[in-house]
Write a structure and sequence with these properties.
The complex is a heterodimer of chains A (about 180) and B (about 160). With about 180 residues, chain A is mainly α. Chain A folds into 2 domains: about 1-70, no CATH class; about 75-175, no CATH class. Chain A has 8 helices and no strands. Chain A has helices at about 1-40, 40-50, 50-70, 75-90, 95-115, 120-130, 135-150, 155-175. The chains are: A mainly alpha (about 180), B mainly alpha (about 160). At the A-B interface, helix 4, helix 5 and helix 8 of A face helix 2 and helix 5 of B.
Chain lengths: ~180, ~160
């Protein structure tokens, strides 16, 4: 009789421990998964929204949002045209660095729209980029900071050159996409 | 091509169709032509550099360098032949395009390219001049036509250097 009680007690304790540890473990797994998917953007989001839990929700929502889109790669002709556009903008940097930055930013927006991303503000674009190109979203944000400084005429030429390179890293990826994503 | 043709060509080309989106409009952007126009403006114009770059930019890419030359009626004599000019232009475009990645090396290469062009033109003047000199020394009559051409060459170079 006492053996039965002991078994029940042990099982009960295990169930309680499981009930407590289960969600903790699940959250940990989720955190690991999101961390490995988003990289540095994960920590940035945690900082931005204030807690890991909210960051998880935010990142999951970003994923869902991008999954709901029909992202497609550009045609060969479109790619060629945009590559030529980029070369022109990059060459223009020598004469008008500030204007070249503005145009580089605009080219990225254009290519994103051509690929099926919706027209949206910068934060939404960055969020979308963070899902598809997690390694490049920090470059995109860094370029954005310089572009805003440029609007105030506060960015020096070297910063603008850096922004150009940041933008290009994303631009190249956007064009290099070879098959349907997500 | 005369000035009238130039005006017509400009009007008939895409200037009238330009919108504020033009620099981004994929169909029209051709970086090589754009660079070409700029370099041409710089090589041919007697205006200050800044002005010509803006002008070249405003005029878009369909305006080829012949057209730009028409604006500069005084420099009718070519210092370099077409292929040479093309080669130099291509190299210039490459240099300008890589500035963003390697600013220092772009400037070094620009320096080398400009030296090369200058040397080439200087050599041409030296040989032209010494051929005239030798004809004079031999007591030959140099034709006025040759002298006229030579003077045009000098003026062409002079105009590009002196604003």
């Amino acid at each position: 009789m006492s053996t039965t009680y002991t078994i029940i007690a042990v099982v009960l304790v295990l169930v309680i421990i499981g009930a407590i540890l289960g969600p903790v473990f699940a959250r940990h797994q989720r955190s690991k998964r999101l961390q490995s998917q988003f990289g540095p953007e994960y920590d940035r989001t945690v900082q931005a929204v204030g807690s890991e839990k909210r960051a998880h929700t935010e990142l999951e929502e970003r994923k869902k949002h991008v999954e709901s889109l029909t992202i497609h790669s550009l045609s060969g002709g479109e790619r060629q045209r945009y590559l030529a556009d980029w070369a022109a903008v990059q060459s223009k940097f020598v004469d008008e660095p500030g204007q070249a930055i503005v145009e580089a930013d605009r080219l990225i927006m254009e290519v994103m729209q051509m690929s099926g991303y919706p027209v949206s503000d910068f934060e939404q674009r960055a969020a979308d980029v963070s899902v598809t190109y997690p390694a490049l979203v920090s470059n995109y944000r860094a370029a954005r900071v310089i572009a805003l400084k440029n609007e105030e005429h506060q960015a020096d030429t070297e910063e603008l050159r850096q922004a150009m390179i940041y933008y290009r890293s994303l631009f190249e990826e956007l064009l290099a996409t070879e098959e349907v994503l997500v | 091509m005369n000035a009238q043709n130039f005006v017509e060509r400009v009007n008939n080309s895409d200037i009238t169709e330009r919108t504020d989106q033009d620099t981004n409009s994929p169909a029209e952007v051709n970086s090589e032509d754009a660079g070409k126009t700029m370099v041409d403006a710089a090589l041919n114009s007697e205006e200050p550099m800044v002005g010509t770059v803006v002008a070249a930019d405003l005029m878009n890419k369909t305006i080829t360098h012949e057209v730009v030359k028409v604006m500069n009626v005084e420099s009718s004599a070519d210092l370099l032949n077409r292929e040479e000019s093309e080669r130099f232009r291509t190299r210039w475009n490459e240099i300008q395009g890589k500035f963003v990645d390697e600013p220092r090396s772009a400037v070094q290469q620009a320096d080398a390219l400009v030296s090369e062009v200058t040397e080439k033109i200087t050599r041409m003047f030296t040989s032209e001049h010494s051929s005239l000199e030798s004809q004079w020394h031999q007591g030959k009559d140099v034709s006025t036509e040759d002298l006229r051409k030579t003077l045009q060459h000098y003026r062409s170079f002079f105009n590009r250097l002196v604003v």
